[in-house]
Amino acid sequence: MRLLVEALAQAPVARRRVELVERKGLGHPDTICDSLVEAVSVALNRMYLERAGAILHYNVDKALLAAGECRKAFGRGELTRPMELVLGDRATFALDGRGLPVEETVRAAVDAWVAAHLPHVRPGRDLVTRPVLAPGSEELTRIFRERGEAIVSNDTSGASGYAPLSATERLVLDVERWLNGPGFKRAFPDTGEDVKVLAVREDARVMLTVAMPLRCTAIASERAYFARKEEALAALAARFADAPFALEWRLNNLDRPGAGAEGAYLTLTGTSAEDADSGQVGRGNRPNGLIAFARPAGGEAAPGKNPVAHAGKVYSVLSHRLAALIHARCPALEEVYVHLAARIGEPVDRPWTGVQVVLPAGAALADVEPAVREVVLAELARLPAFREELIRGAHPVC
To answer: In the predicted model, is pLDDT for residue 138 greater than 90?
Structure first.
């Protein structure tokens, strides 16, 4: 394993004049897609452990949530074509001549997640699942059959993570989580789960654009729609009045008063996947829940990947965790970036590791490097335990 630590001579993101941050919320089609394949991954882990005593070869990170079709008007709506999750890639269907219930596990996991998180979507009716999985290649399945003391990577992959979050990043996370949280939904049960937040910061001024549909069956008229929209905007402004910025809010910016239902963002099911927008794995949030335009990010999609041998899954989550642990140990550091990589066939537990830090004024790299190395080596030493946490779904991936 190789570990390099360096100091960056750059202004922290929070002190730059421009910053863009986005979050696709719980009911956004891309987030639904990511969440569903991760739910399937956790369910397959459980099934393989119960039936085979070990996690077998699979990856279910190639999926499309194809949008349905829907008719909507004020006071009513009808889904005329269901949403469809097309779930592809590879899985192990048999062991020692015994079949394994892969497709049953997939369908049950999808339906359970939908029932728990999308209250106006009927599992198996409004959202249907079409698995198109097949057995894996001999070369990749051999990694799992011939597993020794060191688990080798089944791909050449890298990932980057960072800490701490800037105030803008924290604001975007908090806005979406509040809008999809139980308190707001009790006060505004007529809002959907498909929340998207984009923040554009210019110095200390932040322009926040929020998309959040209103449920057509709960909104009787255009007048009622725009009145409810103003109430939601007022609630947002009041809740985040103490933010350390001058905030400018926009909600459902495509709305056009006077155009009737066609000029309002309405939903029947709570998600635009009902008729407007398909979703795909890997197009949404990084494992820390954000799309931060000024931060490094790899191209791997963490959701749905095998947590045992896919370095892209392990490192995508671990890089953010390591950065947070380093910053907790050395809180004076203004920024911490962690980069992890491994070649296919090399041990997942011994990645190439690069750590970059932005030092506070007057500090030297030698002041913090020993602590940084200690944190990294300690966390890599407990990577088997971290892998078990990923297997259980204990770490968010989107």
So the answer is: no
The residue whose two tokens read 């490094």 is 296
- 92 lies in a domain? no
Q: From residue 260, give the alpha-carbon distance in Å to each of 211, 276, 338.
A: 18, 18, 50
For 253, list phi and psi in degrees, rounded to 5: -70, -15
Report yes or no on 383 lying in a domain. no
145 pLDDT above the threshold of 70: no
364 has pLDDT over 70: yes
pLDDT digits (tens, 9 = 90+) for 378-394: 999 999 999 999 999 99
Name, in order, each residue with C-beta under 8 angstroms of 100's C-beta and a sequence gap of 6 or more. Answer: 47, 48, 51, 52, 56, 92, 93, 94
Chain centroid to CA 98: 35
Element (H, E) at 248: strand 246-251
Which tokens belong to 75?
């006071």
pLDDT tens, position by position, 61-112? 999 999 999 999 999 999 999 999 999 999 999 999 999 999 999 999 999 9
Q: Is residue 204 part of a domain?
A: yes
What CATH number is given to the structural domain containing 187? 3.30.300.340
Q: Are 26 and 117 in contact (CB under 8 A)?
A: yes
Residue pair 168/326 in contact (Cβ under 8 Å)? The answer is no
pLDDT score for 90: 94
For residue 187, what are the domain limits? Answer: 13-25+166-265
Q: What angle do CA 291, 295, 298 make, to 5 degrees?
A: 75
Domains in the chain, number: 1
Q: Please say if the pLDDT value at position 322 is more than 70.
A: yes
**Amino acid (one-letter) located at 142:** R
Residue 171 lies in a domain: yes
Please, which residues bridge with residue 141 across strands?
Answer: none
pTM higher than 0.85 for the full model? yes
Residue 198 in tokens = 């984009």
- For 163-198, letters b (16+ CB in 10 Å) and e give bbbbbbbebbbbbbbebbeeebeeebebbbbbbbbb
